[in-house]
Design brief:
The structure is a single chain. By secondary structure, this protein is mainly alpha-helical. The chain folds into two domains: about 25-35 and about 45-135, Cytochrome c-like domain (Cytochrome Bc1 Complex, Chain D, domain 2, Orthogonal Bundle), CATH 1.10.760.10; about 140-230, Cytochrome Bc1 Complex, Chain D, domain 2 (Orthogonal Bundle). It has helices at about 1-35, 50-55, 60-65, 85-95, 105-110, 115-130, 145-155, 155-160, 180-190, 200-210, 215-225, 235-240. The longest helix is centred in the first third of the chain and has 34 residues, at about 1-35. The chain is globular. The structure holds heme C (HEC) (2 copies). One heme C binds near residues 77, 172, 198, 203 and 211.
């Protein structure tokens, strides 16, 4: 009897250990596959593009969001679907210190560790890949709102496009879909001269004395409702 019980106990123990080892082994195989860039079905997991990898390695995602759509703080800019030439210009100007208004101090130490070559890669990535399948801007546009009326009356459209997403020059920003807090801050800084990088901003400064604080708030609200569509890279190339 005693022998039978001992044998049974040993058997149960052996089965349990075998089970453990089996589960452990499968886990280790899965880990190895992940390390080799294979997913667990054995198919290749898509590797990150050079730009996407840089965007993470340089921690851009921590403030601007993984998809460039939802920034960490509401007064930080939405990057997804922004034009390449404008992004390039901004990155260079934040790095050189020419652009130093608002919250640029938050980004300065980061961009100091990014080379010119990497800036070029990041600008292309932001414009042609980042948040490609995501919506930018709430899309709940009220054409009768005070902001919509001001956008027409104060000729904002003449530089930024009727939809806020088709600027007359490639180096001008696509303003549609920014957060209202960020848009408000930038307009205020351009109006009072705090944002004075480059010559391009001067044209807009001339318009800003025509709008008061309350009107700027209406405009910011309106801008945040406009959608900023993703531009397929090929289309972007042909319209240059
Ligand atoms: C610590 C937070 C932080 C990190 C990290 C960061 N940024 Fe920024 N970035 C900001 C803030 C804040 C602004 C807006 C500054 C202002 O108020 O004018 C900004 C502005 C920008 C702009 C200009 C947007 C516009 O519409 O004018 C671009 C482009 C940009 N960042 C790209 C990047 C890239 C690329 C990286 C990684 C190399 C990065 N940022 C890392 C906080 C950050
Ligand atoms: C004469 C052309 C022009 C007009 C008119 C104009 N803007 Fe601009 N705006 C610009 C340029 C150029 C910039 C970017 C400046 C720079 O290079 O930093 C800008 C920047 C902005 C930004 C900040 C974008 C960002 O991502 O940082 C907002 C918001 C904006 N404009 C809103 C408006 C509104 C609202 C009006 C109308 C009241 C207006 N603009 C009229 C040329 C113009």
């Amino acid at each position: 009897m005693r022998r039978i019980i001992t044998t049974l106990i040993l058997l149960v123990l052996a089965i349990t250990l075998a089970g453990c080892e089996c589960a452990d082994r499968e886990e280790r195989i899965a880990e190895a596959k992940t390390r080799q860039g294979l997913d667990n079905s054995g198919a290749e997991a898509a590797p990150l593009s050079v730009g996407a990898q840089l965007y993470r390695d340089k921690t851009c995602n921590t403030c601007h969001g993984d998809n460039g759509v939802k920034p960490l703080l509401p007064n930080y800019p939405v990057l997804a679907h922004q034009g390449e030439e404008y992004v390039l210009k901004q990155l260079r100007e934040i790095k050189s210190g020419d652009s130093h208004n608002g919250q640029t101090a938050a980004m300065k130490p980061i961009i100091e560790n990014v080379t010119e070559e990497e800036i070029i890669i990041l600008a292309k990535f932001i414009a042609t890949e980042l948040g490609a399948d995501k919506q930018v801007g709430t899309g709940i546009v009220d054409p009768e709102s005070p902001g919509a009326i001001l956008f027409k009356k104060r000729t904002c459209w003449s530089c930024h496009g009727k939809d806020g997403a088709t600027p007359i020059l490639k180096k001008y920003p696509r303003i549609a879909g920014n957060t209202k807090e960020y848009a408000l801050q930038q307009m205020t800084d351009i109006k009072n001269g705090d944002r004075a990088n480059g010559m391009d901003v001067l044209g807009m400064k001339g318009i800003m004395h025509l709008v008061n604080e309350e009107e700027i708030a209406h405009l910011a609200e309106y801008i945040s409702t406009l959608t900023r569509p993703f531009i397929e890279p090929s289309v972007e190339e042909t319209t240059k």
